[in-house]
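Tokens for ATP-dependent 6-phosphofructokinase. Go.
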Amino acid sequence: MKIGVLTSGGDCPGLNAVIRGAVLKGTEAYDMEFVGIRDGWKGLVEADFFPLTRRDVKGLSKVGGTILGTSRTNPYEGVRGGAENIAKTLYGHKLDGIIAIGGEGTLAAAQRLNNDGIPVLGVPKTIDNDLRATDYSFGFDTAVNIATDAMDRLRTTGDSHQRCMVAEVMGRHVGWIALHSGMAAGAHIICIPEVPLSLDEITEHVLAAAERGRAPLVVVAEGFKLKGQDEAYSDKGLDAFNRPRLGGISEVLAPLIEQATGIETRSTVLGHIQRGGAPSGFDRVLATRLGLHAADAVVDGAWGQMVAMQGTEIVRVPFSEALGELHSVPLSRYEEAAALFG
């Protein structure tokens, strides 16, 4: 059996560990052959393949990024795109199927291709932790650790100047990174996409912290909306899937907070630093387990499904269970954190 492996969408700590797990288990336990597909769906459409052997994946569990490269290409676009052309490419290179490692956009494309007759198995990847049917996705823990460390640093400089610091983290539609890192760093208010807040509600907590002699820390997810705001802040155009490129809401909030409170306020957008570097120990283990189980699923012919973590077990779920509705922060979890605000 010959299987292509691709990584698509935003890069993420742990991608290489998945690749390593799948290749080691597949080659050693099942005598499978693997082919690396460069730059996500783009490489599949363009038939940009290379052999992926045990030797090629040695020592990868601790390495950030992806040795395969990635992109946000839509596999149905372009003269060589579409299921019919991709099926011809797979046949010509004697590939029996694809392991697609990616987030919501990647898995939606994988589902569509699978429905059109292309054998695809999914591995969930998103630092936002926004995919249903998996309790945690690899990369999330690393992103939280990076964001927490950055906020700890922001707090020391905020304390030195008695400034309000606004830290912006990733989170297009869900606020898991903001919630976890904000709680870990002792934020005085956490702003997430699931819970719109007014400027008055934010400044109330900022002032309460300042009155206790603290330098306020505000954590905001990039997809947060103020009450009355219809869309998340975006001034960076659209991505390949015609979604707004988010980022910059902290730079909008900071001057508003300063104007309303009289407290000098600074904003920091953590951005892609959350995606970079070596994965945490938790993410290395989770990503490796997902890769191992992906190889098992391929042998079992579990196409049209993804491997996922539920509790402490790795299970298989149909793409349909993972897509359509996001894994958002429940109000009860936000209310837990809100008890610590101010």
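The mean pLDDT is 95.
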